[in-house]
Specification:
The protein has about 100 residues and is an all-alpha fold. It is built from four helices and no strands. The chain has a domain of about 70 residues. The longest helix has 30 residues. The relative contact order is 0.15.
Amino acid sequence: MAPDPLGMPGEADMTMKDSQKKSYSTKGSKIAVALSALSFVIYLINMVAGKANIIYELNLFQIGPIAEFLILLFSSTTFIAAALLQEAAWKSTNEPHTQ
């Protein structure tokens, strides 16, 4: 096959290697991401409800400021935990085990 005159990689070069296809997410990291996303969505719904209360003078249920802080803290903590779990899974598969 002749090389591409523009230097663009060919179709064979575009396929991913087996090491690139490997997923480093574990069950724990997937659960942590799901919990993080869920708690952040709850936080956003609370923010939208608070804005609707102010603008449209509605009387929607709104979480208090301390609970709001705890939800956002939980969301950020679980997101960091998911990142650390994925990094640990990546390191355990990429580094040789020495004794």
